[in-house]
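Quick check before the chapter quiz. The format below is the same one you will see on the exam, so make sure you can read both the input and the output lines.
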Amino acid sequence: MAKQFAVIGLGRFGSSVARTLYEMGHEVMGIDENEDRINEIIQYVTHAVVADSTEESALREIGIRNFDVVVVAIGADIQASILTVLILKEMGVKKIVAKAQNERHGQVLIKVGADRVIFPERDMAIRVAHNLISSNVLDFIELAEDYSVAEVFASKRMIGKTLRQIDVRAKYGVNVIAIKSNEKFNIAPGPDELIKEKDILVVIGHNMGLKEFEDED
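Here is the expected output.
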């Protein structure tokens, strides 16, 4: 089901988020006080407006409360980022996702009302590091401090066996939540699902268990 998103701050990160959400079929409004950035993205989003997000009246005029999720992607101006989140919270926005420059910035964003904080540089570094360390790992997304989702190539030992037989839950404390097989994507596979060569397992669990699972041959 399509959702309504507003993305405030259309630098590299914000514009990429806005375009991706739009391409996925969602309604997206891009907001930035820089007219050039608005002109650059206007054909890649549903609506784009020039506005100062630190002005409550400007956000009210846009109808910001009507959006399902508001992404605050303001870059270098930490003060504007914090003030924007504070205003959105006071206005009763349903869900606020904010980009942080560093841990301290992230802590303040949570305190003033952000529902989720994203650290693009740190999160990308974690994903790249995992991809470098283990040749089996295609992608890695941190969900919380100790829990993550990883995409892992099925090891030789798993091929020709079922999920029940490899029993990764008992062995590593992780769960297979999907299997990518060629172009097919099997979500919530059953215990008798057979693992084939070149299958990719989407696994969720504690980081320690995931690391053991990733290292398996």
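If your answer matched, good. The chain is about 35% helix and 25% strand.
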